[in-house]
Design brief:
This protein is 71% helix and 0% strand. By secondary structure, the protein is mainly α. The longest helix is centred in the middle third of the chain and has 25 residues.
Length: 207
């Protein structure tokens, strides 16, 4: 890794991740290369290797940042002095994920390959952000759904977090996909990220 001050290292890593995020708005994961990323930064492709060894490591850093952003929203819900009903809680969590479409898009990718092609220390950093989401979500359930047993809380955790992997493909449907569904005569109602998340949580929380 580049031998510079922590500030320079952080700044350059952020620039690389920002470039990846920018490209990911209009390009697919498979089409984004280190060369494409370097074209959006202020330095060359060889310089990127001082900070990330693979494209997957850059995406993993973007992934981690998205979890950090969601964690900030979860912390705000957890820190509230209000008492939320199950319906209000479902609404708040659904709104928090509605803002994190990029996180859900990343979740819908092949995470096995992304993690397999990243160094262990970077993977561990990502897992800490993911683990914090689990802890915050669990704490929210325990705080606002006090009638739930420990087993019921864990059951919801193991339903909702795997469920998140499928939200984006259902909510963000391309024109080509819609045309194919019409041609195949598949009767399907298109819902938003908020609607899909809210409907799931309402049922999980028994409201």
């Amino acid at each position: 890794m580049f031998k510079g001050t922590p500030e320079i290292i952080t700044q350059r890593r952020e620039e690389i991740v920002n470039a990846c995020e920018q490209l990911y708005q209009t390009m697919s994961f498979k089409d984004i290369t280190l060369k494409e990323i370097s074209n959006v930064t202020s330095f060359s492709r060889p310089t990127i290797y001082n900070y990330f060894h693979t494209k997957e490591e850059i995406f993993l850093a973007l992934y981690e940042r998205e979890y950090d952003r969601w964690n900030a929203d979860l912390e705000e819900i957890l820190g509230s002095d209000r008492k939320y009903s199950g319906e209000q809680l479902a609404e708040l969590i659904a709104k928090s994920l509605e803002k994190r479409a990029q996180l859900l898009k990343l979740l819908s990718m092949n995470n096995f390959d992304m993690e397999e092609n990243s160094r262990e220390e970077l993977l561990a950093s990502f897992k800490r952000a993911y683990g914090k989401s689990l802890d915050l979500f669990r704490a929210i359930l325990k705080k606002y759904c006090s009638g739930m047993s420990e087993a019921e809380v864990e059951q919801i955790m193991y339903v909702f977090f795997p469920f998140m992997f499928g939200i984006y493909p259902y909510a963000e449907v391309t024109a080509k996909q819609k045309a194919a569904m019409t041609e195949a005569e598949v009767d399907y109602k298109y819902l938003s990220i908020y609607e899909i998340t809210y409907n799931c949580l309402i049922r999980l929380l028994n409201y």
